[in-house]
Write a structure and sequence with these properties.
The complex is a heterodimer of chains A (14) and B (262). Chain A has 14 residues and is mainly beta. Helix content of chain A is 0%, strand content 36%. The longest helix of chain B is centred in the first third of the chain and has 11 residues. The chains are: A mainly beta (14), B mainly beta (262).
């Protein structure tokens, strides 16, 4: 199955 | 005081249509450069980053930067009260707790104004790193909408495989599977109908079609769409907003985290 990643895994919290 | 007058009011109507199904509420960050909005959907899987540049407005006054917290469903309902050929003026006092929209018919024989309460939103903004993408695909926006719609018949994910020959969109599910291959356009006579693949290295990524079908709501804003991809990096889908002369008035960018086979 495909696991849906989250954007916070890639973009940084300011 | 903030006041912005947009002669092509239909542009703001289209912008609202492009985000209202994806986002519930967001802040319009208004500054001298223009109106910006950045927000993630509730599941933090997709992000919208849009800008309407100040020089795209007939007149634009922003005494100091302000952030207008908006319930987008409400703003969308109010903008539905504007005709496509209305001139739209947005106004908010600096210490405002409300925002005003004024719609003027071209003959100025019908002027309506609507006031909407503002919300206090903590604008948590994510830092989007500048990325040199491995692949950038430019294609007609209608074509991309069609691909996303057709493939969602088959499954909830699309595999986008970009190579030097072109780009292939694949989906599979209980019903079966499907592939749509787009070749790089040979003769680029009509720029906006061309498929152009700028590939530094081949990339294959999997994305949710549900979100891509939200993104394609922006297609009326631009005849072209660009898909930017790198391995294990969110997809960027960009609809540029240009005026008739082709000058940039802004953009609507969507970012979508990939799905990982585990």
């Amino acid at each position: 199955i495909n696991y849906q990643n989250k954007l916070v895994d890639y973009f940084f919290d300011r | 005081m903030f006041e912005a007058r947009l002669v092509e009011g239909s542009l703001l109507k289209k912008v609202m249509e492009s985000i209202k199904d994806l986002l519930n509420e967001a802040s319009w960050d208004c500054s001298g450069n223009g109106m910006c909005l950045q927000a993630m959907d509730s599941s933090h899987v997709a992000l919208v980053s849009l800008m309407l540049k100040s020089d795209g407005f007939e007149n634009y006054r922003c005494d100091r930067s302000i952030s207008l917290g908006i319930n987008l469903a409400s703003m969308s309902k109010i903008l539905k009260c504007a005709s496509n050929d209305d001139i739209i003026t947005i106004r908010a006092e600096d210490d405002a707790d409300a925002i005003t929209f004024m719609f003027e018919s071209p003959k100025q024989d019908r002027v309506s104004d609507y006031e909407m309460k503002l919300m206090n939103l903590d604008t948590e903004h994510l830092g989007i790193p500048d990325t040199e993408y491995a692949c950038v695909i430019k294609m007609p926006s209608g074509e991309f909408s069609r691909i996303c719609r057709d493939l969602s018949v088959l499954g909830d994910s699309v595999i986008i495989c970009c190579t030097k020959d072109g780009v292939r969109f694949s989906a599979k599910g209980d019903l079966g599977n499907g592939n749509i291959k787009l070749a790089q356009s040979a003769n680029v006579d009509k720029e906006e109908e061309a498929v152009v693949v700028d590939m530094r290295e081949a990339v294959t990524l999997t994305f949710s079609l549900r979100y891509l079908n939200f993104f394609t709501k922006a297609a009326p804003l631009s005849s072209q769409v660009s898909l930017s991809m790198s391995e294990d990096v969110p997809l960027m889908v960009e609809y540029k907003i240009n005026d008739k002369e082709g000058d940039s008035k802004g953009y609507v960018r969507y970012y979508l985290a990939p799905k990982i086979e585990d």
